[in-house]
Amino acid sequence: MPEQTITIGHKDFAVACQPGEEKFLLAAAEMLDAEARTLLNQIGRVPAEKMLLMSGLMLADKTASVEDKLKEAEAQIESMREEISRLHARPAQKVEVPVVPQDLTDGLSELAARAEAVAEEMESRGSA
């Protein structure tokens, strides 16, 4: 079983871990050390046992907060999944486009042609 030396709050500790788990141990030790250094900066010198206890509690508090946020995010994701499923299950909505009667289209075309003819006549009178 590999043994690692970790530093928590300027104190070295020898800790054994499973083979291949060294990087996880070191990452956890860094997190605990960060809390310990914060504690030492605020309070000053503290006995090792109290430093480790307080640092562990501070880290546990942060972990609990992250777990609460994770649960909230998972609930939102589940709600969104349900909404997506509900929307997919809805029958497709038909959109009806009104049809313009042919006689109205013909009338508008004739009116447009007359307007163009009048415009051309006015243009030819203006340039003469």
From TrEMBL:
Task: List the transmembrane segments.
Answer: none
Provide the GO biological process annotations. cell division
Keywords, sorted A to Z: Cell cycle, Cell division, Coiled coil
What single Pfam family name could you report for this chain, choosing any that match?
A: ZapA
The record's annotation in SUPFAM superfamilies points to:
Cell division protein ZapA-like (SSF102829)
**Where are the annotated coiled coils located?**
63-90
Protein name, as recorded:
Cell division protein ZapA
